Structures are given as C-alpha cells and as structure tokens.
Amino acid sequence: MTNHVFNPSILREYDIRGIIDDTLNHIDAWAIGLSFAECLRMRGHGNHVVVGRDGRLSSPSLAASLCDGLVAGGAKVCDIGCGPTPMLYYAGISLKSDAAIQVTGSHNPPNHNGFKMVMNGTVFFGSDIKELSDISASGPAEKLGGSITETSIFMEYVNRLVAGAETGDFTVVWDCGNGASGPATIAATQKITGTHHVLFGDVDGHFPNHHPNPVDHKTLAMLRESVAKAGADLGIGFDGDGDRIGIIDAKGRQVPGDFLTAFLAQDISRRYPGSPVILDVKSSDMAMDLISAAGGKAEIWKTGHSHMKKRMAANGAPLAGEMSGHVFIKDGFYGFDDALYVGIRVLSQMAKTGQSITNFVDMLPPQHATPELRIDCPDNQKFDAMERLKKYIKESKIKNQNVSFIDGVRVRTDYGWWLVRASNTEAAIVARAEGKTPAALKKLVKDIEAAVAAAKIEWVKL
Q: Do 369 and 284 form a contact (C-beta atoms < 8 A)?
C-alpha cells in the first residue's frame, strides 16, 4: 500500500493542476493513476482508461508516470499520444472506454501542467477529485492485470471533425499558438473548402511565438494582423490544449464567447425552439436577448467546462458557451468543448445562412461592458472573501429577485448588472459589469468597488 498526500493547491474544482517540480511532479502523477484505478473499481466501473497529453515539455514524462500508476492499479491503458484534449474526449467515446485522462496545462504558463478526467462518460470534478485525494491518502493497494497499449486515433478524429462540413469559399487564418491542436488543424483544413492559413501549427512546449490564450487580446495580436494582411473573412485562435476558441472577425474585432454562442444559436435554436442554451454567469444580457430572439431559452449557469457539461446533460441543451471560449455543441456532435469543431461549425453556418460573423457583429447595438476584471487573491483566501461578500449583499437592501448566488454574486440593477466570483483556476477573484449606457457602466464599477471594499477584499489597481 502506498500512502500519498497531494499538495492541496493542485486539487482544483474542474481538474488537477499545479506547477511542475514545485506543487506537482511525476510521483503525484503515479499516485493519481493508482488512485484513479482504485476509484474506478470502488464505483463498479470497468478498467479501460484512455490517456492523452498536450504538447508541454513536461507532458510526456507526466503521462508516462500516470500510465504506470494506472497499470499498477490494474487498469488496461490505451495511450493515444499527443493531441488536443477534445481528441481525448472523442477517443473515450470511440473506443468505448470506461474513463479518460488528458495530461494538460490548458492555457496556463509553460511550467504548469495538470490532468483533466472523465469517468463513465461524465466529467470527473469537484467532489470526485476530493474522493481521489482521499483514496490516495488512504494507501490503495496495487493490483495485478494492468496493461498498456498504444493506439492512434488521429485520422479518425480529424475525419469526424469534417464529416458533412460544407464550409464555403472563405479565407480563414487559424492560430494554433504552437499548442496541441496544430496537427489536427492542418489536417482538417486540408479536407474542407476555402483558403486556409495555419499559424504556428507545429507543437512546441516553449510556446515561442505567443502564449496560447484565445481570450487575451494581446495573444490575438498576431492573428488580427494576419487577418488584415490576408483580407480574411475570419481568424480563429486556440488555447494550448484546443478546447477554447477565440474569434477575430474580418474587421479585426474580437468576438467574445457569449456572443459566439449567440451567433451559433441563430441556426441551432431555430431548429430546437424553446430548448435551453446555457451561458456562464459572466455572459452579457445582450447575448441572452439574441438567443431568446432566435427561439432559444437562454439560461445562466456556473462558469467552468465541468459545470456546463453536467448542466447540458441534465436539461438537454443543444448548445452552451462561456465567455472564456469554451463552446459546447450537442447538435450533431457530442456536447464536449472542441474548439476546432466549433470553428468548422462557424464556417458551415456562414456558408449555410449567408450571414458571416462580421455581419452578425455589425448588427449588434453598442455594448457597454467591462472586460474580465482581475483581483489578485491567494487560493486559500478567495473563497472566504466571497463568503464575506455574500453576507454583505444578503444584509443589504437589494431585493432577492435581483441577486443570484449561482456562482459568486451577480446583482441586477435598473441600469445593468455586475458580477464578482472566485476563479476556480487562478489565485484571483474576477469581476465584470454591463451597463445600459457608458455612465451606467461607470456607476456599476463603483458598485463593485464599494461591495468588495465592504467585504474587506483588497483591490490593487495597476
């Protein structure tokens, strides 16, 4: 029996994530594998586990240790090698596995890494991760019967992405940021119509060109410049593991994830009238109104890909999306967040409907909203700080119907709304506001400042 206690900072809400050789190392990876195999057995599932990894420098060794731990726990491991996280999700379905684990640091800095997990066809997060930690600390015994094989799912995955796609004659720039989505993007764009320029399609864990974060306007600068230079109809960027998308339209405007979801709803909701379309709590009222006008039932839910997938399964939503660029399509697909597939769907919708994403943005009224505002706060303090904020709001004179505690604190006023919530991926509290006018927006930001000050949350503005 091997007792292993993880650094508590790596046990996140959606996944396990830490700093290599600081809070996370190969011993942790081995223990995760052993404990995950034990968890499968305790829950009465089978022992077939698919493992994939992104292109980070630490991913091969972490994946090897993870696989060794799984095998030590009696699991039958299928190693699909390097690829985007959505390829791992697809492999789990295609290979009919009992579970799947991707070694990935997502959009975090190069010296970070982690594990995204699926068990029995559903996301493994929150209390599941706590259970995994408890199993590890209890010292699970090694088991006989484990094995490992290597399987290539790459071309099958690419062919599924482009199956039935009619993408028109658009010019598109794709920025892979040297992340794990590069090879699949190159292969997929060779199979669809249009003119395609792929930037930084080689996988390089040093990320030599820019950090792959498709919602940071700074990291989209090269994509924006390339769209202008090529006279392209669209620019599409990905994060490091290919599950988040960023869009630049033909006029160089960044299209946030909530509005991208609203664009997709113009097609999907008209074919599923009255069905839910889920947005996360950071999303715009304007995006919700666009979804409602298209025939969907806009619903606000918790931020985080795990929460969104679970909610989609519960209410049968054909579409969901987050500000961060996670977009989930169940219509003709599997409901997981696959940025490359979403990009192909955007092109297909543009070709089918005749409405480009640029036309869609052109028709939007002016929006008066902040970007995501960051308040640095240590991981071991941010949730206590949010409890103080909730207490302050509950004791205020704000009417109950104007307050939501679904994920943080979201307050609606006569002149707009504001949100403050704890990040589940970073040592930060985040805030956002949307007003009916520029003056209203300034007032909402003052409301946020007053609320966080009352909750004794220090907001240092640089």
A: yes
Question: How many whole angstroms separate alpha carbon 383 and alpha carbon 324?
Answer: 21
Which of 106, 181, 324, 348 is labelled catalytic? 106
Q: What are phi and psi of 376, to 5 degrees?
A: -60, 135
Nearest-angstrom CA–CA distance, 10 and 120: 23
Inter-residue contact 101 to 64 (CB < 8 Å):
no
Single pTM value for the model: 0.94
pLDDT, tens digit, for every residue of 22-73? 999 999 999 999 999 999 999 999 999 999 999 999 999 999 999 999 999 9
Superfamily per CATH, domain 171-362: Alpha-D-Glucose-1,6-Bisphosphate, subunit A, domain 3 (3.40.120.10)
Report pLDDT digits (tens) over 326-371: 999 999 999 999 999 999 999 999 999 999 999 999 999 999 999 8
Pick the CATH number of 8-153 from 3.40.120.10, 3.30.2000.10, 3.30.450.150, 3.30.2290.10: 3.40.120.10
- Where in the chain do CATH 3.30.310.50 domains reside? 368-454
Residue 106 falls in the annotated catalytic set: yes
DSSP alpha helix (H) spans, 143-300: 154-162, 182-189, 221-230, 257-271, 285-293
Integer angstrom CA distances of residue 338 from 67, 158, 211, 292, 312: 24, 12, 19, 24, 15
CATH class of 368-454: alpha beta
Q: Return all residues near 25 (Cβ < 8 A) that are at least 6 apart.
A: none
Is the CB of residue 188 less than 8 Å from the CB of residue 343? no
